[in-house]
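Quick one:
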Amino acid sequence: MSAHTPAAASDTLDGIVRVNRQGAIAIRLTALAVMLLPLLGFVEAVRLWMAGYASATEWTLFGVMYVVHMGGISIGFHRMLSHRAFTTLSAVRVACLIFGSMAAQGPLLYWVATHRRHHAYSDRPGDPHSPQLFGKDWKSKVAGLWHAHMPWMLSEEISQWNYFAKDIIADRQLLFFHRTYLWWVLLGLALPAVLGGLIHDSWTGVWSGFIFGGLARMFLANQFAWCVGSVCHMFGGRPFETRDHSTNNWWVAVLTFGEGLQNNHHAFPWWYRHGVHWWEPDLSGWLLTLLGKLGIVKDLKSPSADAIRRLRRMTPV
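Output:
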């Protein structure tokens, strides 16, 4: 196998289809916009910082929007919707849907179907973003790591919504947020811009808020989030026996609110927590535990202690 060619998913694999040429062009243009526009915003943020325009306001807007962005994906799109790990109040669910959409990682149906497909074919042909399908030599490993980080989004293969996300399609509220996805992305860019303008009382504040709380936040948060599919399927610890190469990578876990504990997650995908032990860095899991005690979230799914013992590796690597 070429170091630059992943193992293609067969057309016979359930839930995976190839789009036509026109669809492929649309997918690639959208993916390139998601990759490149935030990158330009990040470059501009560095320029503004070097020029002395990054005040406490800009860093606060960045930090707050980063938490909204990562929390919406980790708690909302991932644990709540993709794995049905808990239920919650309607207002909290709506907030999770809005915040997750603001991350600009794709509309709801796309996100859920892609993630469920990842679990169905993890690190095998059919996985949309595995770094393990290019070969065993070091050049193949590097090519696989890069492919799993971003270029996988340019693929002509798509995950069928009516196969992987029937429950999402059947929910009218979720369909509404799927169809209005672009408006929530724009809101995630407009909010910090408006706040920056009001706080600084200037158009310069509008621009710096848009850059720091909007595009630069989107760039860095998504880069860290994409490390979950690339870095965390190649580098890290493997305390549990799973059929894939998922790993626990703590620095990714810290930056993604627990998502980097991939080996834990792949061992128990429906668990609302990714940290098996309280001290493992899983901010989303800690927050959900607290919200559960307050009665704001319910039906928090967890494995038994016996199930955890059965999957644990005798010699963690």
